[in-house]
Design a protein that fits this description.
The protein has 491 residues and is of the alpha/beta class. The protein has helices at 33-40, 55-69, 88-96, 144-158, 183-196, 234-244, 253-265, 269-272, 287-292, 317-332, 387-402, 404-408; strands at 2-5, 73-78, 108-110, 122-123, 137-138, 141-142, 172-175, 201-204, 208-210, 215-216, 230-231, 276-278, 336-338, 410-417, 422-429, 432-439, 444-449, 458-461, 467-469, 474-479, 483-489.
Length: 491
């Protein structure tokens, strides 16, 4: 189990993808913001020997320690393509121009001429945004100055006390807009992290190759064993939406399982086992709202800002039932399931900023949502922690943890049933075999063909305890609508 944090480093924004510095946790996350700011002023940011530990830094390291004590790992967001305009080196360049010793850190396209009243200073920003100056690259990826600084940052957070034992540091990185930084740099980054912690985990955000034409990257060049361990598996999420959620754009069970086969064939087996399988994130609408809004292309027009017809209401009980089925599939399929905060609590919301609302906690009371961002009418939706949905997430996660076949087992499609909108796959590890039955349609009785089974073999539903006996090389199982079963072979 791992916790992945969005950016935590000091920055002026709420989203924190515009870092002011990489070597300190934002002082607003600590108990003494003013004291932390005073400590910054005593440092020279370019010199790691002058770096100190602030109260926010220390609190974060305590979080890491407590996570490790509970058998959990911690991954943080590394945003090394761009910084913010308050980043210490950029401010120096802005102030001193060509005379700055950091003048080769950024992609400056025009320097200011002090002899004119105009400001000619210009530079490249991420996606053209001047609020996010890009770090300069050369043939090796990041230029030598920012590259060396990032190396110092990696060492600081992966081995905070520098004693060669990484147990007090973070366990890996999620690397933002990774396709926008040259692969040679990421190869070097992997070497840095493996030197410190051979078991560290690297996952890259390698996502849109061509957003306008709805083409996502095949991330195979980043997943050959010398760059990342995994990527955020949005391709998988998009296919799942077309099968589980869509209506006019819906695909059959045969088509869905075929597309899954195609996705797995793009990568090595060891890569498929650790791909970050997520439905939603801080860059998409939430899973609950995806289910409220079928037949939208994944990550396209998924907010009221971008789509006036986007429905902002709370998911219905039927849509929550479908969410539970999606989670059952997520927790039993090949890969590393990733749950965006609040999905398990029943939170909903469109794309940025609606999906980044504060967490809903069970011990707190909240006002209902009653307004529409475009002034349109909407239901009065109660905001509260969904304890039933939360219990479902916990139960499925515990089941995955308990069953080796679900975590590490081989995958085999058993059968797809287009008429019933259902499919069955097997996860197996050694003698352990589990059939995962997914029924996306109405209540059905499925006849499941079995391999290497003799009549009379018995299977137990891991959730209900119900037992089934195979006959004539097949297993007849009744499955309620929009639900699933996990059937384990009894020895």
């Amino acid at each position: 189990t791992a916790i992945y944090f969005n950016p935590l480093f000091e920055s002026p924004s709420l989203h924190k993808y515009d870092a002011s510095m990489y070597h300190h946790i934002d002082n607003n996350f600590g108990p003494d913001p003013d004291g932390d700011a005073a400590l910054w002023a005593t440092e020279r940011p370019e010199d790691p020997t002058t770096w100190k530990w602030t109260s926010a830094d220390s609190l974060f390291l305590t979080v890491v320690s407590e996570a490790h004590r509970r058998g959990m790992r911690v991954i943080i967001d590394g945003v090394f393509n761009h910084v913010g305009t308050t980043f210490w080196a950029f401010r120096d360049v802005r102030k001193n121009g060509k005379a700055s010793k950091f003048n080769d850190w950024f992609s400056v396209t025009s320097w200011d001429d002090p002899s004119t009243p105009a400001d000619e200073f210009a530079y490249s920003g991420w996606a053209g945004l001047k609020d996010l100056p890009e770090l300069r690259e050369d043939s090796t990826g990041l230029a030598s100055g920012p590259s060396a600084h990032v190396h110092d940052v990696v060492k600081r957070w992966m081995d905070p006390n520098g004693d060669g034992d990484p147990s007090d540091g973070i366990d890996g990185w999620r690397l933002d807009v990774a396709e926008m930084v040259g692969i040679p740099f990421w190869r070097q980054f992997r070497e840095w992290t493996r030197e410190i912690n051979p078991d560290s985990y690297l996952t890259g955000e390698v996502w849109w190759e061509d957003w306008r034409n709805n083409k996502m990257f095949n991330a195979e060049p980043w997943l050959r064993g010398d760059v990342f361990d995994a990527v955020m598996n949005y391709r998988w999420a998009a296919q799942a939406m077309q099968f589980f959620r869509d209506r006019s754009l819906k695909i059959t069970a045969t088509e869905f399982t075929s597309r899954l086969d195609t996705l797995r064939a793009d990568y090595r087996a060891d890569v498929n086992n650790v791909l970050l399988n997520l439905y939603a994130s801080h860059d998409t609408d939430r899973l609950g709202s995806m289910l409220v809004n079928p037949d939208l292309i994944f990550d396209h027009a998924v907010s009221a800002r971008d789509n006036p017809d986007y429905d902002v209401r709370k998911p219905s009980p039927g849509e929550i039932r479908r969410q539970k089925l999606l989670v059952l599939f997520q927790m039993t399929y090949v890969g590393a399931p990733a749950v965006y905060y609040g999905e398990e609590a029943g939170m909903w919301g469109g794309d940025d900023p609606d999906e980044r609302k504060p967490m809903v906690w069970p011990e707190m009371a909240y006002d209902s949502e009653i307004t529409h961002p475009l002034g349109k009418s909407r239901p009065r939706d109660i905001v509260a922690f969904d304890s039933t949905l939360h219990a479902e997430y916990r139960a499925l996660m515990r089941m995955r943890t308990a069953e080796r076949a679900l975590r590490r087992g081989a995958y085999r499609l058993v059968s797809a049933y287009d008429a019933q909108d259902a499919f069955v796959f097997e996860r197996s590890a050694g003698a352990e075999r589990i059939l995962v039955v997914i029924n996306n349609g109405d209540r059905s009785t499925l006849t499941i063909p079995l391999l290497q089974d003799t009549p009379g073999s018995r299977w137990r539903d891991l959730r209900s305890g119900e037992r089934f006996t195979a006959g004539n090389g097949s297993l007849a199982v009744t499955v309620d609508g929009v639900s699933g079963r996990l059937l384990k072979a009894e020895q």
